[in-house]
Amino acid sequence: MLVIRRRAGEGFLIGPDIEIAVLDVSPTRVKIGILAPGALPIVRKEVLPTRQENLAASRNAPPHTIAWLSRKLSQCGAG
Amino acid sequence: MPRLVSKYFGELDYSTEAAFQFPEGIPAFEDQTAFVFLDQPQTHPLVFMQSLGNPGVCFIAVPVFVADPAYRPDLSPEDLALLGLSPEPLPQIGSDILCLTLVTVSEQADPTVNLASPIVLNLRNRKGVQAIQPSAGYSVRHPLLAREDLVPCS
Description:
The complex is a heterodimer of chains A (about 80) and B (about 150).
Chain A: E1 11-14, E2 18-25, E3 30-35, H1 48-57, H2 63-75
Chain B: E1 3-6, E2 10-13, E3 19-21, E4 34-38, E5 47-51, E6 58-63, H1 64-67, H2 77-83, E7 97-104, E8 112-113, E9 119-122, E10 127-130, E11 142-143
Antiparallel strand pairs in B: 1-2, 3-4, 4-5, 5-6, 6-7, 7-8, 7-9, 8-11, 9-10
């Protein structure tokens, strides 16, 4: 991994179109500004597993699976 | 009373107060910003999170306590702000907010829930968010049924 030290107010470039600016630094957080072409998706890294799981969770559930799961959860006193 | 077309239950009446606004959608479904939560007697305790914008988008959810009776949400300041809540006093599940978790079912694997990113609903202003809380130590694929529950419960 390339490591660059930057202060607040400084930045760097990735290729000709992407600019990353360090806007503010606090003891626990960094505020970052990104200038990039609109078509480029930018996501927070911690969102990625949930994004994938949401896509899996949105898939069609067969009626018998729904009925089985509902019955199972009621049986276990969770309802 | 408005009607909606639901993915699993056909056409249903609903009251507009039953709709929750998700200002940012949820990850991978950012354009779906309004959902109703359907709790039908025949599928209780499952809750169906049905998009009002697209009948084909519906998630199966359960209250977090069904999956983990000791569950503690850890809401970020950003998510609290989105919900219009302040961190003090801590919002209480049941009276201020509802906390659900999305279920992933498949033919090949046991059902899992995403406890790392609960669906949090503010009951007062009808706003909702999927709260990403990676540091809370919960899994995005937590088994919904304990091993012993896969055989009849004791």
